[in-house]
Amino acid sequence: MTTENNSGGPVDDLSAYDYTLPEELIAQMPLRRRTDARMMVIHRDTGQIEHSYVRDIAKYFRAGDVLVLNNTKVVPARLIGRRVKTGGKWEGLFLRFDSHGIWEVMSKTRGKILPGEEILLEDSDGGQTQKLRVYARTPEKTLLVQPLTSFDTYTFLNKVGWVPIPPYIRSGRMIPEDRENYQTVYARTPGAIAAPTAGLHFSKELLAKIADMGVTLCPVTLHVGAGTFRPIKTEKISQHQMHEEFATIDQKAVDTILRCRARGGRVIAVGTTSVRTLESAANASPDGKIDSTGNNDYPLRPFSGPTDLFIRPPYRFKAVDALLTNFHLPKSTPLILVRTFGGDELMKRAYDEAIRYDYRFYSYGDCMLIL
Predict the structure, then answer these.
(1) In terms of Cα–Cα distance, which of 347, 50, 357, 67 is closest to 201?
(2) Of 23, 167, 266, 335, which residue is the least packed, with the fewest Cβ within 10 Å?
(3) What is the DSSP letter of 294?
(4) Mind listing the domains of the chain with CATH numbers?
(5) Parallel/antiparallel/unpaired status of strands 367-370 and 118-122
(6) Which residues pair with 74 in a beta bridge?
(7) pLDDT tens-digit profile of 181-209?
(8) 112-121, pLDDT tens digit by residue?
(9) E runs forming strands in 102-244
(10) How many CA atoms lie within 13 A of 133 on its CB side?
(11) 359, 25 in Cβ contact below 8 A?
(12) pTM to 2 decimals?
């Protein structure tokens, strides 16, 4: 089911994806045990809504299913420092780097920072350590900078970077516990600037239990970037352009999923980033161009490259049968994806019920399993 307007077509208005959330329901810390999070279970075939816990998720799986996990690893991408020239405060968010060691960063400071300027960074203990030199400003108003150090990028970030906690959690201020809490237990491949938060609910013990019952754990990678969370600024969602994020699904993962489908199992995606990885691979033409409608006959194939897939009504899902996901911000691209997947009226009812029953929202909050 998709959002409908009076003429029967999918709603294109961003305002249709708004809702009001009491501030006290925004989780500021995770639970002490990841698996104690509440889990709303939504049955699309019947419209039934159950209330459960992540620790009991295995009872909703069947032997032969595949659980797809985004194994991206969050890097300490938040940068804090001062401009050497003026002494003014500076904040940045590392986005990516190229083969020449040039970084692209989002930048926040008073005044306009110019090419040639240097920035003295503070580490998370408050000491001033390393410098960046500004090279250029991009058309997207980000900065191109280069560290004045011999360290490789991730070693450097681990020395001076802060965990990029979202602004709705403690105004974006990291505490030491976030280095572990804001990371999945199966994170392997560094490159994300935000956590694939549905995966934060799993412990190693729960994953082992799920695997022992005959569910195959299938890793894919999507490095979560600013595009996933950048607000939509157009009134019509069809006019929004997603920023590219790098995704990878290899031949082993493709073979695992195809065998699952052949035996009648379900592909269960953990998080909207896993959905976007799978659907990008399922909708990629032989030349790598992604069909954003899902209305094609392309087979699922290995995929490695940038994706700007924006899943919105009336998208046809090809690779995903069920989804575990957190509760998302109003007017956000993940919320639009979830409502497209789960059925619009059912998802609106689920969100209303989550607020009524005091579920915890957003990155450190509770989750829903959409079957």
Answers:
(1) 67
(2) 23
(3) -
(4) 14-74+180-370 (3.40.1780.10), 78-162 (2.40.10.240)
(5) unpaired
(6) 192
(7) 999 999 999 999 999 999 999 999 999 99
(8) 899 999 999 9
(9) 103-109, 118-122, 128-137, 143-147, 189-192, 216-222
(10) 7
(11) yes
(12) 0.93
